[in-house]
Design brief:
Helix 1 crosses helix 2. The strands form 2 sheets. A 7-stranded parallel sheet has the order 1-10-9-6-2-3-5, covered by helices on one side. Strands 4-8-7 form a 3-stranded antiparallel sheet, covered by helices on one side. The protein is an alpha/beta fold. The protein has one domain: Rossmann fold (3-Layer(aba) Sandwich), CATH 3.40.50. Strand 2, helix 2 and strand 3 form a beta-alpha-beta unit. The chain has 7 helices and 10 strands. The longest helix has 18 residues. The two termini are 14 Å apart. The structure holds 2-amino-2-deoxy-6-O-phosphono-alpha-D-glucopyranose (GLP). The site of 2-amino-2-deoxy-6-O-phosphono-alpha-D-glucopyranose has 14 residues, from helix 5.
Length: 241
């Protein structure tokens, strides 16, 4: 595991964006696994900036996002589908038909989960998976104490996750209780993983994930078993390490 220190959030974002840029430059038809949350915003901003300067081409890239809330339509301003269009997809030349986010509105969620796994397989797997980390140590929406070998599935969000994500909604009551998330299995099958973390509130969980026991109690700890993980974290997030 390669742990890269950055002094602050902007530097962390640039470093992580550099790694994604290198991936796309070296393999223009890359399959990128993409993440949401506040942490990757600076990464997307930086990629959009470099794209605007003519340095990047996403025309042959495919993307698969990690997760989506159950019950939020893609045009809901808090859905991850909306987030991705708003902050990234609509600002670069990735084909809309090449972008994928789980459908949290699907009438048959089990079928949707199966479709998503088949889709990832049909793309030949993920070349580079971008990950943030939740306060519970979750990656995607894989909450503590779930099996590591789960495929895409529906999850009930932990109260801590609902509380943490309530900042994006009018109140904690408005946060959906369920989500569809890519399973840890598909993430672990990605050729490379890029985990980003920023801020003191992530420091303890990041330290437990990178150096503690590998246990479903801390879902991100499984990353210790992946052969090619790069962690880019700012000084505050690395303050406990
Ligand atoms: C959500 C997402 C995760 C993300 C986490 C942390 O729960 N499902 O993919 O890593 O939030 O978000 P933030 O970066 O806002 O702290």
């Amino acid at each position: 595991m390669n742990i890269l220190w950055a002094p602050d959030y902007p530097a962390m974002s640039r470093k992580a964006a550099n790694i994604i840029s290198a991936q796309v430059i070296l393999k223009p038809d890359s399959v990128l696994g993409l993440a949401t949350g506040s942490t990757p915003l600076g990464v997307y901003r930086q990629l959009v900036d470099w794209y605007g300067k003519g340095d990047l081409d996403f025309s042959r890239v495919h993307s698969v996002n990690l997760d989506e809330y159950v019950g939020l339509p893609p045009d809901h301003s808090r859905s991850y589908s909306y987030y991705m269009r708003n902050y990234f997809f609509s600002h670069v030349n990735i084909g809309p038909e090449n972008t994928n986010v789980p459908d949290g509105m699907a009438a048959d969620l089990d079928a949707e989960c199966e479709r998503y796994d088949r889709l990832i397989e049909s793309l030949g797997g993920i070349d580079l998976q971008l990950l943030g980390i939740g306060s519970t140590g979750h990656i995607g929406f894989n909450e503590p104490n779930e099996d590591f070998d789960k495929k895409t599935h529906k999850v009930r969000l932990k109260q801590a996750t609902i509380d943490a994500n309530s900042r994006f909604f009018e109140s904690a009551d408005a946060v959906p209780r369920f989500a569809v998330t890519m399973g840890i299995k598909a993430m672990m099958q990605a050729k490379k993983i890029l985990l980003i973390a920023s801020g003191e509130e992530k420091a303890e969980v990041l330290c437990r994930s990178l150096f503690g026991p590998v246990t479903p109690e801390v879902p991100a700890s499984i990353l210790q078993m992946h052969p090619c993980v790069t962690v880019v974290a700012d000084d505050a997030a690395l303050s406990v390490v």
